[in-house]
Write a structure and sequence with these properties.
658 residues, alpha/beta, seven-stranded mixed beta sheet, globular, binds adenosine-5'-triphosphate, binds magnesium ion, ligase
């Protein structure tokens, strides 16, 4: 594929506020310079901030495309997240502040979490889980999810967290792919006032999961356990969590379970990608390298201080939950908010109520949420005192500049830097991001690589592009890179390291991006979604951003549809902000707005107004299905959709309009 054309010009720039910079962990370019001077030495220094059982002497062993980090060192991830804190002044510090959707609250100190993780590690022993075994976790966003993950790490088992909103079929496929031995689930999970019957879903999956020997069931639902009508407990196979925990004692009658000594390259977890683009891949992460990058990025990207109250709204079922709810923040001894439910339950102000209630200082969410907040209107955050917030983050999709500005104004009150963090399940940790005390931000740009990370833009021939559009690549290994795809190393090589023949050193991210004169990166969308209009290759993000730039628009998705003359014409799907109604006049206005903002080439041929867009369960717009609709094809695989009803109704509307 050729280079990407660049259409959007965004001139706004926000230097770190002086008041923020003054107290920031990084207030100048020293860390970036250190990383550039010697990336291996930089990462080795970051790794030494962890607690090792046996210190490593080797930093990087690299036989492209495979890399190993700190390979002769040994450590345990749960020790880094717990033991080293309870030995010091953080023992009674809040580790998790949990709020359930019905409003129940629980705070776990580091000591509480340490004790429970040890106990659950003893439970895993009793269930026969051994180092290297796989354990599936299918839980809501409750403290037991964190406990289960860390207990797996303690005994050296590889966890495979499956998002609690996934169907029985998705759970089954993931369990079977990596042959999990134990499943940890809950009777139910609260979502918009309903109880989702997780255990019942799990039972459907388990009918076809011969590798599962034991199931542990957390009682989440209020009421007596053993409500057989709701939760069936199969004798011998299924066990209530609270009963096992009550009995969990070591040989001395205590709760302590010694941590397993793990090699840095032993696997910590497998996590299946969300599947925006196709069959889920079991992404495999190591212990030492992964933890190094998760901890270092959490500390420096979020400027984490001892007194912060940190809230990442992701689900533990996604990599963001792994790296930035569990491993990164806990390795740093942070206080983390954990919320179970929906942002609009019982009202559209729930997130802001939580921020005020716990005095959240660092807030990390996704563009899909920000666009929903825009759609609902600024009156919801305006009801709350958000003055403790000092830093905002975004991850998951490109953030349209106007959504960035909305976030900046209505949540950050112009005071909080925004870190737009680009990374992937495969990268394990944030790769491109501002350092909030050091990097001037530009709305819509993830800015520059994290220290020690080497990125580049290449054309399809492998020529580097200094300024302009191209394919995003990572050009040197980084500690938290995926080690392989579970059970399919060839797919690992083919997917990530075969884009440029003869260059197995180059990691192909699958995203298009541009680089501006300041060396800033702007992610323009997935390469598979790129539009091709009259010979111009255009990233989806720029056209969508031009639409969102119009005051009536909250969210937009664009796709290319076959066109006789142009190759492709642009079809746009648009969601309006509260207080705006669809009309023919507005449609014309939006088409002109795009043409004016980024050029006539990008003028959409079709615009369809829609109350919602098809999203993956992780909240990302799924353009592949919109393409099917625009081209009048049968819909492709819809199993990873959050709400299949949305595409069905869009398809009807689209066909009615033609
Ligand atoms: P699959 O790989 O299974 O299709 P996925 O790519 O959605 O699923 P993730 O690993 O969760 O799974 O997402 C990574 C992708 O999300 C990136 O490749 C990029 O397209 C997008 N992304 C993440 N953060 C950003 C960001 N800050 N700006 C732009 N895009 C982002
Ligand atoms: Mg991906």
């Amino acid at each position: 594929m050729s280079d990407l054309d660049v259409l959007l010009r965004e001139e706004r720039s926000f230097p770190p506020p002086e008041s923020f910079r003054r107290d920031a962990l990084v207030g100048d370019d020293a860390l970036h310079r250190e990383g550039a001077a010697d990336p291996d030495a930089f990462w080795a220094r970051m790794a030494r901030e962890l607690t090792w059982i046996k210190p490593f002497t080797r930093t990087l062993d690299w036989t492209p495309p495979h890399a190993q980090w700190f390979a002769d060192g040994t450590l345990n991830a749960s020790v880094n997240c717990l033991d080293r804190h309870v030995e010091g002044p953080r023992r009674n510090k809040a580790a998790l502040i949990f709020e359930g959707e019905p409003g129940d609250q629980r705070t776990l100190t580091y000591w509480d979490l340490y004790r429970k993780v040890n106990q659950f590690a003893l439970v895993l022993d009793r269930l026969g889980v051994k180092k290297g075994d796989r354990v599936a976790i299918y839980l809501p966003m409750i403290p037991e999810a964190v406990i289960a993950m860390l207990a797996c790490a303690r005994v050296g088992a590889i966890h495979s967290v499956v998002f609690g909103g996934f169907s029985p079929e998705s759970l089954r496929d993931r369990i079977n792919d990596s042959q999990c031995k134990v499943l940890i689930t809950a009777d139910g999970s609260y979502r918009r006032g309903q109880v989702i019957p997780l255990k019942r879903n799990a039972d459907k999956a388990l009918a076809e999961c011969p590798s599962i020997e034991h199931v542990v069931v957390v009682q989440r639902r209020a009421g007596a356990p053993g409500d057989a009508a709701f939760t069936e407990i199969k004798e011998g196979r299924d066990h209530w969590w609270h009963r096992l925990m009550r009995e969990a004692r070591n040989a001395d009658g205590g709760f302590y379970r010694a941590p397993e000594e793990m090699s840095a390259e032993d696997l910590l977890f497998v996590l299946y990608t969300s599947g925006t683009t196709g069959k889920p891949k079991g992404i495999v992460h190591s212990t030492g390298g992964y933890l190094t990058a998760a901890a270092a990025t959490t500390k420096y990207v979020f400027d984490l201080k001892e007194e912060d109250v940190y809230w990442c709204t992701a689900d533990i079922g996604w990599v963001t939950g792994h790296s930035y709810i569990v491993y990164g923040p806990l390795a740093n001894g942070a206080t983390c908010v954990l919320y179970e439910g929906a942002p609009d339950w019982p009202e559209k102000d729930r997130f802001w109520a939580i921020c005020e209630r716990y005095g959240v200082t660092i807030f990390y969410t996704a563009p899909t949420a920000i666009r929903a907040f825009m759609k609902w209107g600024p009156e919801f955050p305006a009801r709350y005192d958000l003055s403790r917030l000092r830093l905002l983050g975004s991850v998951g999709e490109p953030i349209n500049p106007e959504a960035w500005m909305w976030y900046h104004e209505h949540i950050g009150h112009g005071r909080c830097p925004i870190v737009d963090t680009w990374w992937q399940t495969e990268t394990g940790a944030i790769m491109i991001t501002p350092l909030p005390g050091a990097t001037a931000t530009k709305p819509g740009s993830a800015t520059v690589p994290f220290p020690g990370v080497s990125a580049a833009l290449l054309d399809s021939a492998g020529q580097e592009i200094e300024v302009g559009g191209g394919l995003l690549a990572l050009t040197r290994p980084w500690p938290s890179m995926l080690r392989t795809i579970w059970g399919d190393d060839q797919r690992f090589v083919d997917t990530y390291f075969s884009k440029w023949p003869g260059r197995p050193d180059l990691y192909f991210a699958g995203d298009g991006a541009k680089r501006d004169e300041d060396g800033y990166y702007w992610i323009l969308g997935r390469v598979d979604d790129v539009l091709n209009v009259a010979g111009h290759r255009i990233g989806t993000m720029e056209v969508e951003s031009a639409l969102v730039d119009h005051p009536a628009v909250a969210e937009a998705a664009v796709v290319g549809k076959a066109h006789e003359l142009k190759g492709q014409a642009i079809a746009a799907f648009v969601t309006l902000r509260a207080g705006h109604a669809p009309s023919g006049a507005l449609r014309d206005e939006l088409r002109d707005h795009v043409a004016e903002k980024i050029g006539p080439i990008a003028r959409p041929d079709d615009i369809l107004f829609s109350a919602d867009l098809p999203k993956t369960r992780s909240g990302k717009i799924m353009r592949r299905l919109l393409r099917d609709i625009a081209e009048g094809r049968a819909l492709g695989d819809t199993t990873t959709l959050a709400d299949p009803g949305v595409v069905a109704s869009l398809k009807d509307q689209y066909e009615a309009q033609e």
